[in-house]
Design a protein that fits this description.
This protein is mostly helical. It contains nine helices and no strands. Helix 1 crosses helix 2 and helix 4 packs parallel to helix 8.
Length: 252
């Protein structure tokens, strides 16, 4: 298959190809969804296809364990019972809860956000980080974190209506969260905690209330501090290769 050939030839270009396809594809389908006056209606099908393709490809080539779709044997107590992840996942509801869309649009939003969480973790942490870590671990952590954050700048140019201050705050917190997720993946060898946190964080944004720029800055600052401190804790307190046996997870 062409995907396997590209992966075997250059894992980095394989990762970049997925990033480009995802960023521009999601941006274009978002725009098309707005044109037909049904937010995320087209996007959700595009993202669903991407998810199906990547899951089938990983399953066929037995790469679930390689990209962290597996459990970790590290005890939750050594990871502070994932409490920092719970705080980060809930940040979109810190200032209140509301219903922003009609029921069918809400369904489109939630599904698309779940797909986004899964895809971004597999692409940025699984594909890109793993490809770069083979040569330079520090560069892999940095690039995976920064590119994940920079990808959120697309909101400034895709007509989504995002203003500069909220978007910059989103990019800053995304870099911090990206740093945490890549460290968590590196330490535990499992992407599942990252995927679950990311999916919940995204899905709950569907019910977020509009907040002021000051509130946005405070939210971004708190999330960034939690993410960075937790990542530093993981780097200092956990052993790099503590996982000797991985339990593979096969989607049904």
């Amino acid at each position: 298959m062409p995907m396997k050939k590209l992966y075997d030839k250059s894992k980095i270009w394989f990762a970049l190809s997925w990033i480009i396809c995802y960023v521009f594809g999601a941006s274009c389908t978002d725009a098309l969804s707005r044109i037909v006056n049904a937010e995320k209606s087209i996007t959700v099908f595009f993202l669903g296809i991407m998810v199906a393709v990547v899951v089938v490809w990983m399953k066929k080539n037995r790469l679930f364990g390689e990209f962290g779709i597996c459990k970790t044997t590290i005890k939750a107590s050594k990871l502070l019972f994932y409490i920092p992840l719970i705080l980060i996942a809930s940040c979109n509801l810190w200032f209140g809860v509301t219903v922003n869309y009609r029921w069918h649009i809400t369904v489109f939003y939630i599904l698309s956000m779940l797909f986004v969480g899964l895809l971004e973790e597999i692409i940025f942490r699984g594909f890109l980080f793993k490809a770069m870590a083979e040569n330079n671990l520090k560069s892999a952590i940095t690039v995976s974190s920064v590119t994940f954050g920079i990808g959120h700048f697309v909101n400034l140019i895709n007509g989504s209506g995002a203003e500069i201050i909220p978007n910059v705050c989103q990019v800053v917190s995304a870099v911090a969260i990206g740093f945490l997720f890549v460290v968590l993946f590196y330490k535990t060898k499992s992407l599942l905690p990252c995927v679950i946190t990311h999916c919940i964080l995204n899905a709950l944004s569907t019910f977020a209330v509009d907040i002021t720029n000051i509130q946005q800055i405070v939210q971004s600052a708190v999330v960034s501090v939690i993410a960075v401190l937790y990542a530093l804790f993981l780097l200092k307190k956990t052993e790099c290769h503590i996982v000797e046996k991985q339990v593979h997870f096969t989607p049904t």
